[in-house]
């Protein structure tokens, strides 16, 4: 009997429910938000269910999970529901962009382009002036500044990259059909090493408010951050543009 594939083993509705619950818990457990490192892993697995036969296949479940998680991050305030739904749609488009690029360029880069696309959505929201109402993944650490003192070097959205890379590694370690011990160990290192490094630093944390002030040109704080800005998602945006450009060219070439 042929071995079942990952998408046959893991029910997409179970992945949607797991993502919604675990990511919500990550946002709600402010003093100890460790579950945020696992909440997006089921979404990475859901991306495996999208295929060429139906471009949006199962991506609606990504949107549902994101609405629930982001709504919890907004403390279930119904006046934020429209903003939450718009953000969920924007992030789901990042998953659609990943599906499109994978179909045309292949899967050699794994889930890394998806990390770039999500960072790009956050950066575009920041540049568009929507940062105050936007829920960044980094917001899960709003009550745990002692873990992210290194944002003075990476910028606030470096925390989003940290979260996404950890979730990607967890997806590879446990959600692809069998458990990979090397990737599971790497996941634990990626989660714990930045926290331990943070406790060795004695610097001013770049938090969300500082980031918003810099991008509104209202910051009065000194340091390199106002000059450097959010260089990680800015770089991701350029890389994402190149990936999509190559994907569109490849798609056009194949159609000819």
Fraction in beta strands: under 5%
Distance between the termini: 39 Å
Q: Could you give a short account of the major beta sheet?
A: none
Percent helix range: 55-70%
Point out poorly predicted stretches.
1-7
Q: What integer value in Å does the Rg equal?
A: 18 Å
Series of secondary-structure elements, N-terminal to C-terminal = HHHHHHHHHHHHH
Number of continuous helical runs: 13
Q: Could you tell me the mean pLDDT?
A: 91
Structural class: mainly alpha
Number of strands: 0
- Global morphology: globular
Taken together, the total number of domains comes to 1
Oligomeric grouping of the chains? single chain
Describe the structure concisely.
By secondary structure, the chain is mostly helical. It contains 13 helices and no strands. Helix 9 packs antiparallel against helix 10.
């Amino acid at each position: 009997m042929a071995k079942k594939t990952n998408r046959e083993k893991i029910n997409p509705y179970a992945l949607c429910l797991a993502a919604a619950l675990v990511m919500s818990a990550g946002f709600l457990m402010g003093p100890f938000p460790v579950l945020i490192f696992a909440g997006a892993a089921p979404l990475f697995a859901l991306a495996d269910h999208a295929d060429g036969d139906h471009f949006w296949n199962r991506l609606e479940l990504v949107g549902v999970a994101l609405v629930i998680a982001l709504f919890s991050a907004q403390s279930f305030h119904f006046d934020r529901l429209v903003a939450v739904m718009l953000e969920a749609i924007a992030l789901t488009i990042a998953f659609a962009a990943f599906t499109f690029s994978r179909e045309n360029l292949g899967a050699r880069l794994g889930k890394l382009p998806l990390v770039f696309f999500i960072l790009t959505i956050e950066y575009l929201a920041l540049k568009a002036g929507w940062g105050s109402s936007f829920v960044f993944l980094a917001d899960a650490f709003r009550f745990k500044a002692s873990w992210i003192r290194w944002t003075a070097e990476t910028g606030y959205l470096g925390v989003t990259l940290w979260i996404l890379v950890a979730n990607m590694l967890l997806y590879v370690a446990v959600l692809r059909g069998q458990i990979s011990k090397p990737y599971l160990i790497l996941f634990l290192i990626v989660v714990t090493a930045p926290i331990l490094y943070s406790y060795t630093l004695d610097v001013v944390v770049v938090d969300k408010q500082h980031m918003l002030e810099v991008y509104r040109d209202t910051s009065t704080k000194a340091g390199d951050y106002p000059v450097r800005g959010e260089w990680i998602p800015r770089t991701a945006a350029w890389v994402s543009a190149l990936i999509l450009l190559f994907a569109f060219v490849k798609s056009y070439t194949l159609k000819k």
